[in-house]
Design goal:
By secondary structure, this protein is of the alpha+beta class. The protein is built from two helices and two strands, in the order βαβα. The chain is globular, with a radius of gyration of 12 Å.
């Protein structure tokens, strides 16, 4: 997506370092990117996701 000029938001559960490596690759393609921790197995955590997103 980033190679097509699209900014990218990714989520991760664990392995923050891997997520940050993906973000860096996207940024190297000239696009904006951020990785936000989200446990998709805990639906109640979705409530805070928009707030997490806005802090970036």
């Amino acid at each position: 997506m980033s190679r097509k000029g699209i900014d990218v938001i990714i989520t991760y559960h664990r392995r923050k370092e891997d997520a940050e490596a993906v973000v860096q690759e996207i940024k190297n393609n000239g696009q904006k990117s951020v990785a936000i921790q989200l446990d998709t197995g805990v639906v109640s955590s979705f409530e805070d996701f928009p707030l997490d997103f806005l802090t970036y």
